[in-house]
């Protein structure tokens, strides 16, 4: 189901993956079990980005800069206060992960991995989300899977939500 990761007990967990991979579901469940604050990266997007995506236009790296900076600031505020938290973020490129995780040893990366077919089917069933299914191909095209040097916990999205939560909690030393 997963690859092992070696990491200190995290203060913050970043859950990454393409749209409809289950980031929000996992993030909310982890936060609920741990009693940690949860933020979905979508809430950090400036209105211009939301409008662009809702119109079917993928964001470019310039569009993402203020978004990534805001996520990193939230993470740093939590860490500085001795707090904990869970944040979901597509974090499709290594350069994005460098901004939000960088050299923060107490920030764990969980990568939800699945096939285009399975995730596409899930996306087609979603309602009330600003990203249309047509943009999923652009997400897979942009995806740079995290390398071993990034210390990711790689989790298959084919398992049940409960099994994924249990596995992540155990492997991160949070159970």
Element string (H = helix, E = strand) = EHEHHEHEHHEH
Q: Average pLDDT across residues?
A: 90
Structural class, judged by helices and strands?
A: alpha/beta
How would you describe the shape? globular
Q: Whole-number radius of gyration?
A: 15 Å
Weakly predicted, low-confidence segments: 1-7
Largest sheet: 5 strands, parallel
How do the strands of the widest beta sheet line up side by side? 2-3-1-4-5
> What's the N-to-C terminus distance?
17 Å
**Residue share in helix:** 40-55%
Number of strands: 5
DSSP summary: helix tally: 7
Strand content: 5-15%
Secondary structure elements and pairings:
Elements: E1 12-16, H1 23-34, E2 38-40, H2 47-54, H3 61-80, E3 85-88, H4 94-100, E4 107-113, H5 116-125, H6 136-142, E5 153-156, H7 161-171
Parallel strand pairs: 1-3, 1-4, 2-3, 4-5
Describe this structure in words.
The protein has helices spanning 23-34, 47-54, 61-80, 94-100, 116-125, 136-142, 161-171; strands at residues 12-16, 38-40, 85-88, 107-113, 153-156. It is α/β, with parallel strands linked by helices. Strands 2-3-1-4-5 form a 5-stranded parallel β-sheet, with helices on both faces. The chain is globular. The protein starts with 11 loop residues before the first strand and ends with a helix. Residues 1-7 have low confidence and may be disordered.
Notable traits:
7 helices; five-stranded parallel β-sheet; globular; 175 residues; alpha/beta
